[in-house]
Protein 1
Amino acid sequence: MRLKFNFAASGIGAANGAIHPVISRSSNPVFCLALLATLPLLAACREPRYIIPAQKTAEEQYSFAVREDNVYRLPINKDRQWPMSERAMAAYRKVIEEFPENERLVSHSQLGIAMILDRRGDTLDRLRDERRALKMYKRLLETCPDDDPIQINSLFGTAAIYDKLGKYERAKECYRQILDRFGEGKNPDFDGIVATSRRRYQKVHETKR
């Protein structure tokens, strides 16, 4: 009897189709049925569980999530990117779950999750993570029109994803919005994003010629 497993964990929710058995025709059918019945349990074992300590206030809970996010991004943790990014997202979700009345920090926690999905898309299930990030960015742009940090980061993230996907006209439109709304030194905190957007806008514009 020959039995082969292909464990392919892909992003969040490993229990949803992440384990795919490849069973040869010579396998014992009774054994195979029994094995298939255990797959949900195997998948559940692979799904990470993170215990995020509860904080007294929304501000403290959000600060904890930001610290986890910063730790995950350290170059020294590159080889542990997936589990640490999952823990950082769990920390942001803790803010959303425990302090739903704090709309500002809930929105910024959603932005944190979207940015993690966007950043880690280069090394994991890129297309899946980027699609999820894109959906979150779009929702934040609609629901937080007066929050400048959310607006500029969501526009920039959306533009970068469209750029990578080869949807240059959509990317250019997002970069253009950043330049129109936040350019000309309107907010020094955004100067870095504005400068990068200007360079990328020009690059996309030249690509389309």
Protein 2
Amino acid sequence: MTQNPERGAQIPLETNRKDAAQSCQEWYCRSDVRQALISQLREDREVWVNAEDYASPRPRVAKSPSDLLQLIPKGRVCSVSSSIERFSDPLLLTTEEPNTLRLGWDLILDIDSDNGFEAAKRCSQAVIRLLANYDLESVKVKFSGRRGYHLLIEGEAFDCFSGPTDFLRAYPLVPLQVARFITAALSPKDRRGVEIDTAVYSPRHLIRIAYSLHHLTKLVSLPLSTGELGRFTLEDASPDRIKQINWNWLDTKPKLGEASTLLDYVVKWVQRSKPRTGIHVLSRANAAKTRTHDSTPCVSALMREGFSAKLEGHRHDVLCNVLNGIRRLGFTITPEQLKELNKRSEKPLPERELEYQIRYQLSRPRPYRFKPEIMQEAGLCPSIGCRLCRNPPFTIKRTDQRGEAYDK
């Protein structure tokens, strides 16, 4: 028996369960809710539905709202979860290894706290601020449905490896390194009593998707903007309080390779750590050292045309960008080549300015990232853009007990 909070009357627990199950059914029968759920599942994600006394078979997929409704049993409050990984055919996971079917993966930071709801909120806000320092602007945050938050960075942000195979092989070890780095970078106050759950970084792990109910709390896993996060209360996640779907949140996509700056710092952090067997270290390998400006159309155009009249108003930014590319992308351009280029240019930069920028940009403790938009605005990029300019490639290096690299 439970108390009615308004009248103090005794209400049978079974009645509460029936009411909750009816509310669940009404929630999932909303066409906009079903569409929001399906937009996250697609046909390349494994889907799982569970309740307090029910779990759908695995693997399953849901290609349409009707497919999803067939997985949700009547008379129960259910959660809808999907795989963090994307697969070419999730239904083959019963017979094939996940790594042979993997098409991609996302980074999920599952932030939970035994010290209360506000502690998880404080930590989530700190993580978002931290990620902003590494040029990550497309971080999505949502209430988990229980007592914590999920921070989501879609896989395109991490697609800055030397090839698609390395990107796929990076899961789950690279997300695990990133989560450990973020935990170490937080202040003791922000991480006190809070856990970033690293158990999610395992093959075929599932996470509750946005607009799913939590099968125990009956609350919605609600998407939030960074501004809404500070004002959020548990009451805001009640199904009857949610009148519309935040499609902007669902449709937000990261820039390709947006997480490259973050990975740069994870590389350095891991390399400073004591090597352990099986630890995978991200590496620039030799790709950045051997990249020439000829392989990057916008820089090649600059070296061919020089500082022409069409670059008026962009010369300073282009120079600084190329100097950053020398350090961040490994362009094989020397300061002497830049000085020679300036001398034969139609609109050369003042010699003192050129000398100062070369000395300053090449000696900064932390170089700025190479910005393709600067080259595009200056008219140096082809219309389709330069993918190699956007982000340096990463490869994976494995270490043995002595910390020495070996190939596998």
